[in-house]
Amino acid sequence: MRKILMLGGTRFFGKRLVERLLQDSVNDVTILTRGETSDSFGDHVHRIHADRFQANELAQAVGDTLWDVVFDNICYSPDEADQARRIFDGKTKRYILTSSLSVYDFSEEALTEDIFDPETYPIRHGGRNDFTYQEGKRLAEAVFMQQATFPVAAVRFPIVLGIDDYTRRLHFHIEHVRNELPIGIPNPEAHISFIRSDEAADFLYWLGCSSTMTGPFNACSDGTVRIKDILTMIEEETEKHAIIQKQTADEHMSPFGIEQSWFMDTTKARSAGYKFLNLKNWLPELVSSLNKTYEE
């Protein structure tokens, strides 16, 4: 059996990953959870209860178990990374860190993994409240890549979308168009990457369980989309006009409201054999599916 530990496996693409892992009978899956979010896995998974962000609780929960793969979807700071790399020293054969497109600055060119090198990035310590989201993710990668004694791969996801997105970022745009509310978008021409939640889970599974590769990996659907094209899709579905403004009240500013393009190159993963979905195939379908939920 392959012993898998999930840190962050009760919702969104973490939940999707657990579902994917359970499709393979060789996987013995354990979810570390605070017990605040219920799950539907029944006795198909093991559960250990602890707060991932409390080092003592995490260490006690992990104990002396040897894991084949640890998936960490909820690491946001160098201190959290440092605690984990100490706690799992000698206790895992492989560690998959969920990182982010946010480690990169905006760019009109496709972003490749070598643009941010965690192997050489100066480490500073602190908690998640001490840094921006971008800097916290950069430093978490740096700690793992420079100081972990076990093999680590970091997956850099863009914004993840899906029916099950609890942050409701795409929902935000559909609701605003349907209700004829202004949407704050600094640059409607900006190109952006996305990945679907089940695709994100499948990539994590592939990297963690079907490869021995380490280091950073960009992971996003093939292709990009302009922010204004997303709104065009929504307009076609809702038969209403999107009210786009460069600046609005904070509650109306788009979660996709980037000032410049922000998209990734996935040559590294594709060259290793992974096949991503085509963004232009699934995004219109998702917009349509979400819009229909408001008409039921």
Notes on the structure:
- The protein is α/β, with parallel strands linked by helices and 296 residues long.
- The protein folds into two domains: 2-159 and 195-218, 3-Layer(aba) Sandwich (Rossmann fold); 162-193 and 223-261 and 278-291, UDP-galactose 4-epimerase, domain 1, CATH 3.90.25.
- It has nine helices and 13 strands.
- It has helices at 12-22, 55-62, 78-87, 133-147, 169-178, 197-209, 227-238, 267-271, 279-293, and strands at 2-7, 27-33, 46-49, 69-72, 95-100, 152-157, 159-161, 182-184, 191-192, 194-196, 215-218, 225-226, 243-245.
- The protein has a seven-stranded parallel beta sheet with strand order 3-2-1-4-5-6-11, with helices on both faces.
- Strand 5 (95-100), helix 4 and strand 6 (152-157) form a beta-alpha-beta unit.
- The N and C termini lie far apart (44 Å).
SSE blueprint:
Layout: E1 2-7, H1 12-22, E2 27-33, E3 46-49, H2 55-62, E4 69-72, H3 78-87, E5 95-100, H4 133-147, E6 152-157, E7 159-161, H5 169-178, E8 182-184, E9 191-192, E10 194-196, H6 197-209, E11 215-218, E12 225-226, H7 227-238, E13 243-245, H8 267-271, H9 279-293
Parallel strand pairs: 1-2, 1-4, 2-3, 4-5, 5-6, 6-11, 7-10, 8-13
Antiparallel strand pairs: 9-12
